[in-house]
Every structure is written in structure tokens, then in C-alpha cells.
Specification:
The chain is elongated, with a radius of gyration of 20 Å. Strand 1 and strand 2 form a beta hairpin. The chain has 98 residues and is mainly alpha-helical. The chain has a two-stranded antiparallel sheet with strand order 1-2. The termini are far apart.
Length: 98
């Protein structure tokens, strides 16, 4: 065992998903990007990569920009949730005091 917490694994998988290195299929099930997966023959690899949508290819123009944008959007989402949680806590404290 690697002795990793579930939260650490979830965070790592989310980061890999944002980077399009894996794609989430359903809860707990991920598929590795076809450009990273091992194949039995070069022909299989070429066929799998050709079948991919162009925007999912790791060498597509703008890939890094899309990743940075997705990561920034996720961080903004976390910040919004944190602010909302802080507001709720303040309201609870004010209710308890009054």
C-alpha cells in the first residue's frame, strides 16, 4: 500500500483530469489518455490517436492554455465555495450571539 489518503488520491486524479491525462468515465473509473496508453503495435497506437478528438490530443495547439484556464476556473470555484462557507459560519456566530 502507498498509505495515501482518499483526499490525496482524489486531488491527484482531479489534477490529472484537468490536464486531460486521464478522463473520468464515472465515479472512481478513469481512462488514460490514448496518447499515453501502451499499445501492442504502432498501428494500434496510430489508430487510437487518430480516433481521438483533436482537442484531447496532448500536442494540440492551445493545450497548455486550456489546461491553465481549467485549473484557474477550478481554483476560482474553490475560492467561491470557501467564501460561502465563511459567510455561513459568520451568520451562525451572529445568530448565536444575538
Amino acid at each position: 500500500m502507498l498509505h495515501l489518503s482518499r483526499a490525496a488520491v482524489n486531488a491527484a486524479m482531479r489534477d490529472l483530469d484537468l490536464a486531460q491525462l486521464v478522463m473520468k468515465q464515472r465515479a472512481g473509473i478513469y481512462q488514460i489518455n490514448a496518447m499515453l496508453a501502451p499499445y501492442l503495435s504502432p498501428e494500434d497506437a496510430v489508430a487510437a490517436i487518430k480516433a481521438m478528438p483533436a482537442e484531447q490530443r496532448l500536442n494540440s495547439p492551445g493545450f497548455v492554455d486550456r489546461y491553465k484556464s481549467a485549473a484557474a476556473a477550478y481554483q476560482d470555484q474553490l475560492e467561491t465555495k470557501r467564501r460561502e462557507r465563511d459567510k455561513r459560519k459568520r451568520r451562525q456566530v451572529l445568530k448565536a450571539v444575538s
